[in-house]
Write a structure and sequence with these properties.
This protein is mainly α. Among the domains are: 40 residues, no CATH class; 45 residues. It contains 6 helices and no strands. 7% of the residues are buried. The model has no long low-confidence stretch (mean pLDDT 89).
Length: 145
């Protein structure tokens, strides 16, 4: 039996302060323990947490706290982002992060012939804006190639 439980059992017969001195605990510590016990008994899962799990599953783990908060507001639950974040971490819910977009602009492994480099035969330019180079391979041709 813990010290606090002993005080709880004997509090009807003796003053709490005397019992706390007897078992060498502070009265404030006892009252904090008592309050925590009452909160644990009264603690049931709020309806918004059930809705959170449901919305998170419906959107295939892609919604973070910002979008979840908007969805829960639509359902009538007023919950802040920090409370959402805490509830999600307590349940192990973590939104999937999208992968970074890598643009693929050039296909260097094609079997088509490459255009010859005509600048190799020319003398090096001595001033700026004398030679320009561009790539128009992305433009479709009339024959479809």
């Amino acid at each position: 039996m813990s010290r606090y439980r002993f005080i709880e059992a004997q509090r009807d017969h003796y003053p709490v302060r005397l019992l706390c001195q007897l078992v060498q605990v502070s009265a404030s510590g006892y009252y904090a323990w008592q309050q925590a016990q009452q909160q644990n008994l009264n603690q049931s899962e709020p309806a918004w947490e059930t809705a959170l799990v449901k919305v998170f599953g419906v959107h295939k783990r892609c919604y973070g706290t910002r979008r979840l908060r908007v969805e829960l507001r639509r359902k009538g639950y007023r919950v802040g982002r920090q409370r959402l974040r805490t509830a999600m971490s307590r349940r192990g819910l973590q939104a999937l992060q999208p992968k970074a977009f890598t643009p693929r602009t050039t296909d260097s492994t094609h079997g088509l012939r490459c255009a010859p480099n005509r600048l190799l035969d020319q003398p090096k330019p001595t001033q700026a804006n004398r030679v320009w180079v561009s790539d128009i391979t992305y433009l479709p041709l009339a024959n479809g190639n």
